[in-house]
Write a structure and sequence with these properties.
about 450 residues, mainly alpha, globular, Growth Hormone, Chain: A
Length: about 450
C-alpha cells in the first residue's frame, strides 16, 4: 500500500501560504486586543502581583502539560486542521464570559473566576498547537521558511498593531470595565474570522497511526526514542532555563509600568504597539539573515537584546520612555522568535513531528509556568525591581547554555558587521572590484 504523503503540490502550497497569512492577521489582531491587557484587567479587579503571576502561570502549566497527549491525539485522528478549527473556535468563545466577570462578580470571586476562565481558554486552545505547528511545516518549503515567516510575521504584526491601538483607545475612552469589554467582543469577531480562514487552507491529513502496538509504547520508551536526536534533546533542555528566566518577569512589566513608573493604563496600548512596529521591521530584517546564516545565528544575535530587556526596564526613569524599551525589545524578540520557530522545525524529524513538538512544548512550557508563579510571589514579598534583575541574570545564563550546547545546522559564521543592512552586499561588491582590478593588472 502506498504511504500517504503530507506534501502539497506547488499551487496548493502557494494558496495555503497566502491563506495562512490572512488567518494569522485576524488571529493576531484578536489576540492583541485582549492578551496585552489581561494583567491590567486583573489589576483593575483588585488582583495582587502574586495573583497576576498565577494568571500567567496556571494557563501555561495546564496547557503545556497536555502537549504530549495533544500530539498523540492529533496523530491518531490524522485531521490536524479540523482539530485546530474546533479548539481555536471554542477557546475564542470564552472571550464572552471573561468580559462579563466584572458585571457578575467582585472581590476574590471575580479574580479567581477570571483566572479560571483564562486558564480554560488557554487549555482548549493548546490542544491544537502541535497539529498547527506540524501543518505549518507541511505548507512551507524548508529553503524559504525564514523569508516566508518573516513576511507573515510582518503582516501579523501590522494587524496586531491595529488591534492593540484600537483596544488601548477603547480602554482609555471608556475605562474599566466597558472599554475592556468592548475590546474583548471585537477580539471575538476577529478570532472567529481567523478560525474560518484557517479552515479553508488546503492540506493533506496526516496518515492515522495504527492502533496495533500503540499501548506497548509507554511514555518512557517514547522519550528514549525521542532523546536519540541529540540536537532536539539539547534544545529542549536549554529551553528550560531560558523560558524560566524570560517568564520570571515578563507578565509583570505592565504592573511595573503602572505601579513603579506611574504609567497611564490607556497609554499601555501605545507601549505595546511600539514593540509591534519594531517587529514589523524586524521580521523582514531577520528573515533574510535566517535564510542566509541559519536559525541559531539569528537566535544568538536577537537573544542579546532579548536577554537584556529586564535591565532596560529596570533603568527607565519615566513611564513615557517605556515606548523605547518596548521598541528595542520587539525588534530583538522578532528575530529570536522567528528563528526559534524555524529551528524547532529543523531539529524535529519529519516522522511523528507532532509528537516531538508536543514533547518540546511540554518541557519548555512547564518552565514557562513555573517562572511567573515564582516571580509574582517574589514581587509581592521583595518588590518588582528584584524580580526584573533576577530575570535578566537567568536569561543571560540561558543564552550561554544555548550557545554552547545546541548545534547549528548552517556552518556559516554570522559576524556583527553582517547585522548592518547591505553590509554583506557591500563586501561582495568590494571583492568583485578587487577581482576585476587584479584581472586588469594581469592583462596589462
Amino acid at each position: 500500500m502506498k504511504e500517504q504523503t503530507t506534501t502539497l503540490d506547488h499551487a496548493s502550497m502557494q494558496r495555503a501560504m497566502r491563506i495562512s497569512v490572512i488567518d494569522g492577521m485576524f488571529a493576531n489582531a484578536s489576540e492583541n486586543m485582549i492578551g496585552p491587557f489581561l494583567a491590567l484587567f486583573a489589576l483593575a479587579l483588585g488582583a495582587t502581583k502574586g495573583q497576576i503571576g498565577l494568571l500567567a502561570a496556571l494557563p501555561a502549566f495546564l496547557s503545556n502539560a497536555l502537549q504530549i497527549p495533544s500530539a498523540r491525539l492529533t496523530e491518531r485522528l490524522g485531521n490536524r486542521q479540523r482539530l485546530v478549527v474546533i479548539t481555536s473556535g471554542v477557546s475564542r468563545l470564552f472571550f464572552i464570559p471573561i468580559a462579563l466577570v466584572p458585571l457578575l462578580l467582585e472581590g476574590d470571586a471575580a479574580i479567581y473566576t477570571f483566572i479560571a476562565l483564562v486558564t480554560i481558554r488557554g487549555l482548549i486552545n493548546s490542544i491544537g498547537v502541535p497539529g498547527w505547528t506540524s501543518l505549518m511545516a507541511d505548507i512551507t518549503p524548508r529553503h524559504a521558511r525564514g523569508s516566508y515567516f518573516g513576511f507573515r510575521n510582518v503582516m501579523c504584526n501590522l494587524a496586531a498593531l491595529v488591534g492593540t491601538l484600537v483596544a488601548g483607545w477603547l480602554i482609555k475612552k471608556y475605562d474599566f470595565p466597558w472599554g475592556y469589554q468592548v475590546s474583548f467582543y471585537v477580539a471575538l469577531a476577529m478570532g472567529l474570522l481567523a478560525t474560518y480562514f484557517f479552515s479553508t487552507i488546503p492540506v493533506h491529513p496526516l496518515p492515522k497511526r495504527p492502533q496495533v502496538g500503540q499501548r506497548s509504547m509507554g511514555l518512557k520508551a517514547g522519550w528514549q526514542a525521542i532523546s536519540r536526536h541529540t540536537a532536539f534533546r539539547n534544545y529542549c533542555f536549554t529551553s528550560i532555563l531560558w523560558n524560566f528566566g524570560v517568564t520570571f518577569s515578563s507578565p509583570l512589566y505592565s504592573v511595573f509600568y503602572r505601579e513603579n513608573l506611574g504609567g497611564d493604563p490607556g497609554f499601555w496600548g501605545v507601549v505595546t504597539a511600539a514593540g509591534l512596529v519594531a517587529g514589523i521591521f524586524g521580521h523582514r530584517y531577520w528573515g533574510r539573515l535566517a535564510d542566509r546564516y541559519g536559525q541559531k545565528n539569528v537566535m544568538l544575535a536577537g537573544g542579546v537584546g532579548a536577554a537584556s530587556v529586564p535591565f532596560m526596564w529596570w533603568i527607565l526613569p519615566r513611564w513615557e520612555l517605556a515606548v523605547i524599551a518596548e521598541f528595542i525589545s520587539g525588534f530583538c524578540w522578532s528575530g529570536y522568535n522567528l528563528a526559534a520557530f524555524n529551528l524547532i522545525l529543523e531539529v524535529t524529524p519529519d516522522e511523528s513531528r507532532t509528537t516531538y513538538i508536543g514533547v518540546y512544548n511540554t518541557i519548555a512550557g512547564l518552565a514557562s509556568s513555573a517562572g511567573p508563579m515564582m516571580g509574582g510571589y517574589l514581587a509581592d514579598s521583595y518588590g518588582l525591581s528584584l524580580v526584573i534583575i533576577i530575570s535578566g541574570i537567568l536569561r543571560w545564563i540561558g543564552y550561554f547554555v544555548f550557545k554552547h550546547n545546541v548545534p547549528a545546522s548552517v556552518e556559516i559564521q554570522l559576524r556583527w558587521s553582517d547585522l548592518i543592512p547591505f553590509s554583506q552586499e557591500m563586501r561582495l561588491t568590494h571583492k568583485l572590484q578587487e577581482w576585476v582590478r587584479k584581472d586588469s593588472d594581469s592583462i596589462n
